[in-house]
C-alpha cells in the first residue's frame, strides 16, 4: 500500500498585516469592496442611460416628424371644416324656416279657399304673428264677403281692413288686410 501522503503545507511568504485581521481592518475591507460594487453599479446605470438616450432621441425625432405631418394634414382640412360648418348653419336656418312655413300652409290654404272669385291678390306676406294681404277687386262687396268668410274661421283671432281705395285710371278697388293668426 502506498504510503500516506502528507498534507502539503502552504507557505505564505507575505506576512499578514495585523490590521487586516482586526475588526477595523475587516470593516474597512468590506466597505471598500461594497463601495466598489456600488460605484460599478452606478457606472452601469449611467452608461445604460447614456445609450438609452440615443434611442429616446430617435423616438422623439420620429414623434416630432409624425406630429408635424399630422398637423399639416389637419390644417389642410381647416378650409373644408369652415365651409362645412357654414353650410351646416345655413341648413339649420333653412330647416327652421321650412318648418315654420310648413306650419303656415294650412293657414294660407284656408285663406285662399275663402277668397271670392273676383278678387285678385297682389301680395301676401306671412310672419309668425300675422298675415298681410293686398289685392284688388271690382266691387266692395267682395272685400266685405272676404272679411266675413275669414271671421268665421277659428284659425284667425282678428281681421282688420288696413287700407282701401280706388285709382282714377282703373275700375279696381285696392285693399289691404291684416289677419292675426291664432297661436
From TrEMBL:
Pfam families given in the database record: PilN
Top-level taxon of the source organism: Bacteria
Official protein name in the record: Fimbrial assembly family protein
Native source organism of the sequence: Candidatus Woesebacteria bacterium GW2011_GWB1_43_14
Amino acid at each position: 500500500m502506498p504510503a500516506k501522503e502528507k498534507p502539503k503545507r502552504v507557505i505564505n511568504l507575505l506576512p499578514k498585516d495585523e490590521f487586516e485581521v482586526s475588526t477595523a481592518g475587516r470593516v474597512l475591507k468590506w466597505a471598500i469592496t461594497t463601495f466598489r460594487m456600488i460605484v460599478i453599479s452606478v457606472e452601469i446605470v449611467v452608461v445604460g442611460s447614456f445609450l438609452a438616450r440615443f434611442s429616446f432621441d430617435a423616438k422623439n425625432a420620429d414623434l416630432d416628424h409624425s406630429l408635424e405631418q399630422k398637423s399639416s394634414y389637419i390644417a389642410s382640412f381647416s378650409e373644408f371644416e369652415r365651409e362645412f360648418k357654414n353650410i351646416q348653419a345655413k341648413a339649420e336656418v333653412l330647416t327652421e324656416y321650412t318648418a315654420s312655413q310648413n306650419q303656415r300652409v294650412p293657414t294660407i290654404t284656408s285663406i285662399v279657399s275663402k277668397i271670392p272669385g273676383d278678387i285678385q291678390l297682389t301680395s301676401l306676406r306671412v310672419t309668425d304673428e300675422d298675415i298681410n294681404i293686398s289685392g284688388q277687386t271690382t266691387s266692395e262687396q267682395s272685400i266685405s264677403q272676404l272679411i266675413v268668410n275669414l271671421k268665421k274661421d277659428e284659425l284667425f283671432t282678428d281681421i282688420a281692413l288696413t287700407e282701401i281705395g280706388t285709382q282714377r285710371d282703373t275700375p279696381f278697388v285696392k285693399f289691404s288686410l291684416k289677419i292675426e293668426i291664432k297661436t
